[in-house]
């Protein structure tokens, strides 16, 4: 029972996210495939998908991060700015891209410009990022 309450409390403190209906099944499959090799990323992605509002890609506001969005964000306490394209996991991730098989990739999914999200790393350290701008979506 305590786990459910903790998860509900966590979900209430997280910013709302929107995920494209057309991408949801593939994202769910990715979470399942990651369970054996990256269980913490799989769990994080499952958590995010379970709380996501689904919407057709054509109706998603332009300021929402989707797969294939190029997004500018600030990561961590040092405020290091990043500009990367969110992509599906692949054997070779091109330079300038971030995979959904990473905690940062999962954290970006569904976020709006100006929103901040935090999560615990697999070692228990607090990580966070803030979306500055969605530059484009392919």
Q: How would you describe this structure to a colleague?
A:
By secondary structure, the protein is of the alpha/beta class. The chain has one domain (2-137): Transcription elongation factor, GreA/GreB, C-terminal domain (Chitinase A, domain 3, Roll). The protein has helices spanning 2-13, 21-34, 39-51, 103-108, and strands at 18-20, 53-55, 69-75, 80-87, 97-99, 116-120, 126-137. The strands form 2 sheets. The chain has a 5-stranded mixed β-sheet. The protein has a two-stranded parallel ribbon with strand order 1-2. A hairpin with a 4-residue loop joins strand 3 (69-75) and strand 4 (80-87). Residues 1-12 have low confidence and may be disordered.
SSE layout and pairing:
Elements: H1 2-13, E1 18-20, H2 21-34, H3 39-51, E2 53-55, E3 69-75, E4 80-87, E5 97-99, H4 103-108, E6 116-120, E7 126-137
Parallel strand pairs: 1-2, 4-5
Antiparallel strand pairs: 3-4, 3-7, 6-7
């Amino acid at each position: 029972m305590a786990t459910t309450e903790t998860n509900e409390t966590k979900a209430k403190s997280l910013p709302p996210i929107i995920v494209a209906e057309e991408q949801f099944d593939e994202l769910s499959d990715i979470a399942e495939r990651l369970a054996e090799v990256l269980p913490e990323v799989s769990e994080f992605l499952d958590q995010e998908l379970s709380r996501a509002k689904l919407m057709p890609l054509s109706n998603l506001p332009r300021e929402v991060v989707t797969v294939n969005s190029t997004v500018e964000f600030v990561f961590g306490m040092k405020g290091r700015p990043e500009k990367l394209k969110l992509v599906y996991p692949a054997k070779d991730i091109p330079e300038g891209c971030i995979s959904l098989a990473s905690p940062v990739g999962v954290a970006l999914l569904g976020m709006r410009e100006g929103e901040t999200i935090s999560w615990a790393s697999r070692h228990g350290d607090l990580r966070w990022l803030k979306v500055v701008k969605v530059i484009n979506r392919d």
